[in-house]
Amino acid sequence: MIPGRQQPTNLEEFLEGLWKQNPVFVMVLGLCPALAVTVSAVNALAMGAATTFVLLGSALLVSLLRNFIPREVRIATYIVIIATFVTIVDYLIAAISLTVYEALGPFIQLIVVNCMILGRAEAHSSKNPPLRALTNALGMGLGFSLGLLALGSVREIFGSGSLFGIALFGADFQPWVVMLLPPGGFFVLGAWLLLFNWWRARTPAALKAAEVQSHG
Amino acid sequence: MTPRIELRTSPHVVQGGSVEQIMLHVVLALLPIAAFSVWQYGLSALASLVTVTLACIGSERLFNRLAGKPGTLTDWSATITGLLLALSLPPAFPLWMGAVAGFVAIALGKALFGGIGYNVMNPALVGRAFVQAAFPVAITTWIPAFAPQRFSEFAPTTFTAPLMQPPDISAWAKQALDGFTGATPLASWKFDNVLTTPTDFLTGAVTASAGETSAILILLSGGYLAARGFLDWRIPAAILGSAALAALLFQWLDPARYPDPLFVLLSGGLMLGAVFMASDMATSPVTPKGVWIYGALIGVITVMIRYFGGLTEGVMYAILIGNALTPLIDQVTQPKLFGQTRGKRA
Hints:
Chain A is an all-alpha fold and 216 residues long. Helix content of chain A is 68%, strand content 2%.
């Protein structure tokens, strides 16, 4: 805890990941799954849910063990904890829906190396009590899911003319093939980042006020 | 230009031509090519030219507004992007896709980097590359040149409803011109080993993108621009020369398999790309040596893609690669400064 800095309320803790420090739009972390699996809204939501689950599990465990983990091996410990939950979620998704499992491919296992999760464990869970860590992790997970959904819906609308598998434009729709390809992921992510930053920069006065408050 | 003596500090050599002037001359040089394209392909090509150009101009205006910049429409650069883009698309390309290409060209190719002079790649080619990746079928759907009814009716694909698939064109095209196969000269060479004759190329009786076929007009326009000093003649010379040399080499290796250099020069978008796209001032090197390297690279890559790639035409990607390498080429070809010793670079 930084001296003189007020402990954030639970609501602030929750909203941090959802909006103010959104993993996709503000921190720009965890981009590998964000770009790779967001070809449809369903895939995006599945990946978001899986990541949220791992985030919650690892936050709880890291927070509980925070006084027992030796500093020197903390990263390795976090990875083992995260990998445990990734294994659980990997089997879970395979059991629930094989189609989604195949669509997500290796990217479920790759949640292990999602920098956002490791970053949370290092920067937040290891320094906060379990409830606070869970609140923050939930906000982060939902924020990540929101970011993926934003990417996935745009790419699905342009790339397949549908949303959540429901056709929007009829049978004659011309799919924009590029949107389903990797470049499309970059284009859409760039467009969302542009929009998000433009929106944030529109009210510099409000931002400044928030800054003064948080540092004052 | 008559040399003038001025009593002031350097630079003393005054080169005529503001951005507006240069750009206006490029537009004027493009107009005969556009006119020839309309004469070849009729109303569809005209509609495509107008729509794509308007989409570019509209996007330019929109982004200027969003960025709070003074308008840059009067410098004609968006018009050039639009004309070049339309000339590089199939003449019966659905208008809504053309508008998308125009918007992407200005948005991703130009506005994102800060507008005119700051773009890394040729905006028209960025737009074309986007629609090539997005609509691979529509961008390889061709209509016959000199169809008899080209001035009385549009091709069925032209007025496709936005976001919808263009209709199948083969029946219409067959009825428009007997025996029409829908293959470009490069495609018929690559897949059927049929060479188009130079006469067909020079009269424009080939299936191609709107502005690709008028080799003579392109060279005349380019010659005019080069003579006025608005175009670096070394770039087209290097591209065409290196492509011809590469073609010659391959023909010497295996005459049965590879076409003659003339076919390589006349087919596809090589002429248009070499004269008008690769020579874009903002995206080509500035050093004398660099210009030759840049041109040779584009020429050779084009031939490589045509001969060994999956696509039939490679000019677009070759120029985009050349554009991307431009900063590097400029850096390694810096001329020696006066008084500089070997191996010691500032």
